[in-house]
Amino acid sequence: MNKVEKKQNLLELERGQLARWFADRSIAPYRADQVCKWVYLRQVDGFDPMTDLGKGLRASLAEAFEIPRLPVDALAESADGSRKYRLRLSDGLFVEAVLMPERAHSTLCVSSQVGCAMGCRFCRTGADGLRRNLTRGEIVAQVRDLVGSADADRPLTNIVFMGMGEPLANFKPLVSALETLTDNDYGLKFSGHRITVSTAGLVPRMLDLGHQTRVNLAVSLNATDNETRNRLMPINRKYPIEALLDACGQYPLQTGRRITFEYILIDGVNDSTDNARRLAKLLRPIRSKINLIPFNPHPGSPFRRPEEEAVLAFQQILLDSHYTTIIRRSKGQDIAAACGQLAAEG
Ligand code: SF4
Asked: Is the shortest distance between the CB of 340 and ligand 1 below 6 Å?
C-alpha cells in the first residue's frame, strides 16, 4: 500500500523558499509571488481559485501543500469590545490572540510561544512554563486568519507581540513571520511602524531585532532597581537593568521613533513616587515613551492593583519629566485577555 505523504503547510515557507520549490521543478520562480498574493492578499484556502496558474501547476501544488487555518476553539467577547480567540494548533495545543478595537482602527495582540519560560511573577502565561515555540506559519496564521475579523470601520492596522511567550526567545520564526507580515507586495502589507515586539529583556537578541527588521521595540521594565526586578522577572538575574538599558541605548531607532517601556504598576512593590523619580532618571539617555499598566489581578497571584491616586501620581512625575506617559487601561479584563492574563488552558 502506498504511504500517503503528509502535505506541507504552505504558510511555513517564506516567499523565497517557495520560489526555490518552483525552481527545483524547473518552473519560473515568480510563480511564488502569484501564490503568495492569493494566500495573503486574497485569502484563498485552496489552489483551485488561483486562476492565473495553469491547471497542471495547481494540481501539483495541491498535491504538495495545504493552506490551513487555525481553528477557533473558543471566542470570548469583552464588554469593551475586545475579542479573545483561543486557536487550536495542529498538535492540539492552544494559543490566544486578542483583537482590540480602538477608535478608528483595531490592534491584534498575537502570541509567539505556547507558554513561556521567562517566569515573570505577575504573569499567568509564565506560571506553567514553556510548552513549545510557535512556528513561523503559526505566527503568520494568527494575523492572516483574524485580519478579516476586525469591524469594517476599525480595520486591523496594528499588531503587538504581547500575547503568550517571549518573542525574542523564538527569534528566527519571529523574523521570518515579520517578513511576510510587512511584505507590501506579496504579504499581509502591515507597516513596520505599526508592529511592536515586546521583550522581557532578552538583551543579546534586542539589537539583532533592530538590525534585521523595522518594527518597534517595547521593553517590559517593571522595576527601577535590580533587587525588585530580580524578584518580578527572573531574566533580570542574567541581564540586569544596566545591561538592558545599555542595549536600549544602542538600539538602531529610526527617525522619530522611540522605545516603549512598559511598567506594570503593582501595589506596594514598584508604584511609589520614588520609583517614578528613579524611572525618569534611568530612561533619560534613551528616546523613550512609557506605558503604565495597573496590575490586572488573576487567581493565585500574590499582587494587588494600586489605588487610582497612586497610578496618577506616578504618571504625573513622568509627565513633569517630559515623558510621553500613557496609562494603559487594559482591555478585555473581564475575559482574562489583558496583559499577563493569557493562559489558554485546555
Ligand atoms: Fe513570558 Fe511575557 Fe509572561 Fe514574562 S510577561 S512570563 S515574558 S509571557
From this structure: yes
Does the annotation count 96 as an active-site position? yes
Instruction: Please tell me if the CB atom of residue 53 comes closer than 6 angstroms to any atom of ligand 1.
Output: no
Q: Which grid cell sits at 225?
A: 532597581
Q: How far is CA 87 from the centre of its chain?
A: 15
- Find all residues with CB under 8 Å of 236, minimum gap 6, and list them: 201, 223, 226, 229, 230, 244
Residue 43 backbone dihedrals phi, psi, to 5 degrees: 60, 40
pLDDT in tens, the chain (346 residues): 455 678 999 999 999 999 999 999 999 999 999 999 999 999 999 999 999 999 999 999 999 999 999 999 999 999 989 999 999 999 999 999 999 999 999 999 999 999 999 999 988 877 889 999 999 999 999 999 999 999 999 999 999 999 999 999 999 999 999 999 999 999 999 999 999 999 999 999 999 999 999 999 999 999 999 999 999 999 999 999 999 999 999 999 988 999 999 999 999 999 999 999 999 999 999 999 999 999 988 788 899 999 999 999 999 999 999 999 999 876 666 656 555 556 654 4
Atom of ligand 1 nearest to the CA of 123: 3
**Total-model pTM:** 0.94
Atom of ligand 1 nearest to the CA of 233: 4
Question: Is residue 339 annotated as a catalytic residue, yes or no?
Answer: yes
